[in-house]
Amino acid sequence: MLGSHIQNGIDAARQVWSRIPTSEDGVEEELLFSTDRNGGGPESLDYEVIENYAYREEQAKRGKFFVWYYVMLKWFFSLLIGVGTGLAAVFINLAVENFSGWKFAATFAIIKHSYLAGFLVYTIINLALVFSSVFIITQFAPAASGSGIPEIKGYLNGVDTHGILLFRTLVGKIFGSIGSVGGGLALGKEGPLVHTGACIASLLGQGGSAKYHISSRWLPIFQSDRDRRDLVTCGCAAGVAAAFRAPVGGVLFALEEMTSWWRSHLMWRVFFTSAIVAVVVRSAMGWCKNGNCGHFGSGGFIIWDISGGQEDYSFQELLPMAIIGILGGLLGALFNQLTLFLTYLRRNYLHRMGNKVKIIEVCLLSLMTSIISFGLPLLRKCTPCPTSEVNSGFECPNAPGTYGNYVDFYCSKDNEYNDLATIFFNTQDDAIRNLFSAKTIHEYSAQSLLTFLAMFYFLAVVTFGTAVPAGQFIPGIMIGSTYGRLVGMFVVKFYKKLNVEEGTYALLGAASFLGGSIRMTVSLCVIMVEITNNLKFLPLIMLVLLISKAVGDLFNEGLYDEQARLKGIPLLDFRPQQYMRNVMARDACRSRQVVSLPRIVKVADAVSVLQSTKHNGFPVVDSGRNGGSLVIGLILRSHLLVLLQSKVDFQNNSLPCELEGGPISSRHYISDFVKPVSSKGLSIEHILLSDDELGMYIDLLPFLNPSPYIVPEDMSLAKVYNLFRQLGLRHVFVVPRASHTLGLITRKDLLIEENEDPDTLELQSTSMSDLYCNGNLASRHVQSEQQPLLHSLLISD
Amino acid sequence: MLGSHIQNGIDAARQVWSRIPTSEDGVEEELLFSTDRNGGGPESLDYEVIENYAYREEQAKRGKFFVWYYVMLKWFFSLLIGVGTGLAAVFINLAVENFSGWKFAATFAIIKHSYLAGFLVYTIINLALVFSSVFIITQFAPAASGSGIPEIKGYLNGVDTHGILLFRTLVGKIFGSIGSVGGGLALGKEGPLVHTGACIASLLGQGGSAKYHISSRWLPIFQSDRDRRDLVTCGCAAGVAAAFRAPVGGVLFALEEMTSWWRSHLMWRVFFTSAIVAVVVRSAMGWCKNGNCGHFGSGGFIIWDISGGQEDYSFQELLPMAIIGILGGLLGALFNQLTLFLTYLRRNYLHRMGNKVKIIEVCLLSLMTSIISFGLPLLRKCTPCPTSEVNSGFECPNAPGTYGNYVDFYCSKDNEYNDLATIFFNTQDDAIRNLFSAKTIHEYSAQSLLTFLAMFYFLAVVTFGTAVPAGQFIPGIMIGSTYGRLVGMFVVKFYKKLNVEEGTYALLGAASFLGGSIRMTVSLCVIMVEITNNLKFLPLIMLVLLISKAVGDLFNEGLYDEQARLKGIPLLDFRPQQYMRNVMARDACRSRQVVSLPRIVKVADAVSVLQSTKHNGFPVVDSGRNGGSLVIGLILRSHLLVLLQSKVDFQNNSLPCELEGGPISSRHYISDFVKPVSSKGLSIEHILLSDDELGMYIDLLPFLNPSPYIVPEDMSLAKVYNLFRQLGLRHVFVVPRASHTLGLITRKDLLIEENEDPDTLELQSTSMSDLYCNGNLASRHVQSEQQPLLHSLLISD
User: Fold this and answer.
1) Is there a contact between B736 and A740 if contact means CB atoms under 8 Å apart?
2) Rounded distance, CA A792 to CA A789, Å?
3) What is the pTM of this model?
């Protein structure tokens, strides 16, 4: 029915695509990937799989062994990602802990003699660390600034931001976050670890980095874009699992926050990666416990154990907890709004002035942070140590710089401690541990907590968006636990009879702020439970999160979504926009002319089309014999460019290629059409063609996707959106209404009946396909009376 | 372009569909629902949403208030589901605990005097409880037998099993599981609780049960099938949350095991429901602690706290843990295979003989269970109590029937206990607690554990599939923890230096058996963590689950999938079958003739089509004016039946209805087209039409879905499958290849540009749509040269 010349072309194409890698899922869908946001340029980074008859037959022939091998390969790579991310996390933690440890040790050693000298040393070390970070980022890996989570989320949604998955970005992220976190800025290392995991996964998936000659010939390349995306999803989960030592939380984070397409099979593999990370991190910590890692071992990996605290909770406490939730929603939404505003200013004014401004900005921030965190505790009057009966197990005062509460800093008397220094002049890890600590009622004064809250909130807002790797989890937990503890203090005061711990409220506060800012729900809940190693407060955390997210949603979107929007990463939401209901498919794409290519296209025409348009895909139309036309498929810009560059398919006349002879498979390798994630694709400007070549022709039939998804012209855009979004498409053809239906596919058609043997069915259908390919079935269909229209179009001459 | 007569009909349809409830998601997709598995009969239970211009415009007009109201309603219902399921769970637990408590108390009181009399009392109470259960199921609620999980999974996948969500099923499930669990059979109450939650959700979603007059006028009915499905998903999560007191586990269970379509917005609501359940259960338990609930309070809700046990684990233990994983995979797969075989026998032979056989079967099983659980411990020689220094905190021997280890049963000496009675002659809850218990090394002899394992495995296999409500979680945990503890005993023996607890291995064993049988991963892991209230062993549980699932997958599918297949519930998997790659869409549906209806159909013709076919949907084709035809949409069988029954749309001539006059909205309520989940739909046999009426006509245009999804004829079935499965469709039209494309929709067309104001766009598009409806745009398109084909088809006269 398609005309025998087309059918023959399909036969000729049989061998070219025989090496397309299979996936365990059977069919490679064309995925949204690589729509570059700098306009529809040629930077499409994946290849759109050609699902043609040859491909399918080859798949069937290849047999079970290859599928098994490919599945094993995926699991092996998941293992590698887990090990790699785990080791990266250990390395970052080790470095940060040691730098911080040395810094505080040096400072405390000096302030015994002079507070001014101590301050100078403290400031200079901070400045040096932060400078190293901002220098790496600005000079070497600009894509490694920030948390990277919006960019990775965009990548998994189908938008490639240039450079986010490069090897240099990975290196910049690791060393940059060591500097910025070690330098005491108000940011965390958890977001960058997610990015790190994603980079590791992506580099493994493409077989290393060619530019830095660390690619390996034996690393097989995943040529399917979906497989690469799955690996990156594993990497994200591994990052969270490593950052928080929260393997289940990592899986849920990848599921809830990062990925756009989720399959339960993937969940199982992501879970495996997380488990591997947990094992790697645990082994490393066991090794470090023996003192092999310097300061590391006492902190670093977050486990803020809050066991030994409040055992139970009563209904009177629900009101203060609701207040914490509301506070979290308000402060979180405000945080999002302020950072959005500042990021906007930075993008449009400050950071346009060049790298020097970025460096100066970060250095000034480092100075300011040092001054505030060192100076404010100096102004604070010390508090006498509590009597020992209330506080069992805690020494007071502690020598500064050691692990524990009640830090002695600038106190005149012996048994006094500085409550502001306990949380402010400390590593963030220890500060949070101190805020979460139980059995330490009245350790902090309301005044200190308020001061700290205001100053740290301010620092976190202004630090966000600077040119250093920066996560928002730890600052969020710091802010949240401060006001949570503040509320807890009032609860302790008002409900004196209850066994209330301020540390519990600090935990709830942390959950509420993260809920109000990042707007995650289930994953955040699990992460909070895992990092505190305590399940008792799960319902409370849930309650607080519900409230804070609901309150925050009244004002703006989640932090990552807002940032993604500002950065111009156009995420496709799960749901279509309201206005789409009123737009028809035809009208949605009417703004631009459809540029169709004929099946046998003149090289000069192809070049001019590629030069004059920026579309990534073109419908290919063959002219029927009675003057009518027939859409025979979709050709991708990137594939067309490969064809133009290789030139082997050029032919002198405009006859279909099967008449030319010569097997196509000898001319192309499938890998020609696959491009690595981390390099730019071909551009039409770089292809030089002689006049002779411009006069030649190419037959596109072997290279096109013969059946892209189609929608009728008057389907509402909302329905089209669902199709596009759910299947992860890049191109949908809008076609006229059909004249008749050839059939109706329902659930029953898609299920093997119980009594039927799948093997028999497979044989049947294969032979059916053969029949069709040999033209027998086609002629049978032609004889039927069901297709008068197309029949007349194609056969009438 | 569609022709003005069609356009006018669309205008006329404007008001009928204006009351279709909106959902927060904007577009109601047509979902897979209600493909009845008894053949394509008329039992379609949802309605396929008519997405036409009128509907969309009405939606836009309705404004934000309605959407807000509808969203609030959904949240309110989630709350109700949480409260309802929580209370149901409390009720079941209370009843089971009290029945079991009385039973054991009575038995132990009597065996002080005579073991024979005690045995008789024990057996008779068990028999009475089990008989009550099987009587309820066979006589009153046959759909309530088994766990219900495969059926609910099928419902969420789009297959409606008759009766699973009725009110009588709910009642039967609750009282049936009290009898079967209280009667000591080798089954659990957790699976039934999932079904209970789903029933509660479904009944709430349809506004109560009409049959039993407990429907309420003020309960608004959710008319969208997707909303109902979402509620049932919430119900499933609530069931798990209530059964295990595992709110996060419940969410993950619903996500991983139950639902087929998942959106992150739904996750958030499911999470809320689970949190509510947790609060309800906790409140009830707090109330019961004061002694208000009889025996309840000491057990019932699962929390097998294993804290105080093993603190750490070493790498030498990985080998025995791997062995546990392998054992779990083997035994779990064997369990699946045996139960599958037995269920097959039961379905095809035993249970065909009627209800009496079912009742006798269950009663015999109860007798056997009683004899084994009472008799075997009698044969066992008692063990001397361990010296007190090893076992701190445990009394030995305990009086039988009390909460604790070391039960004194048929022991001759004073300080002896019966280790088999400790686990066998006990409630399952206490038995598991005893198996998990730490600090009780060498409590059980290998011989006792092996005996118990063999006997209980046998009992669990034969009990599965009988006509009582039965869950597989608790039996699975029992079996798994037994061989886990057995392995643990050997580990204790071989690695004497390590601080190893047998209870930890019991926990891992339980995880491994469930992993090997049910094949859940992430959710099972979280549930295990939540029920043991211990996060330390998370990586170990993960490892064990990975191994046991992988081993089990070598042999067969998961328990629920196997059972669903046997019960003839055709679940659509996420992935297409391998053979589908080689089949074209056209060939997949070639087995049956497409029955198209004309736009203006004669009543007699419609009736004969409905009588002669069992299809659930029919393409509607309008004849173009030059003899060509045009597919204008899809009409559902159920809608056609409603039209035939109401008769108000009958007209005497075959002219399009807009020429007849009379607003359609006065003739139909949207609720006419919605059917409750729990009743059968209309059938063509029940519609009586006179000869006069049979000679009349109906204009179908206002009632059809104008733009169903379409695929080109030669797309591979695998791609069609993806479309069908991902979007949850019921019908896909297979159409000929298009002659030309009207446009190409890409990501950019679906995104509002950053600079554009969405409001403006919405206005624009609305006005565009108006233009189109007024025919202006249509004529503009007619003037363009892009659509020669359709142009000639429709306009050429």
Assistant:
1) yes
2) 5
3) 0.82
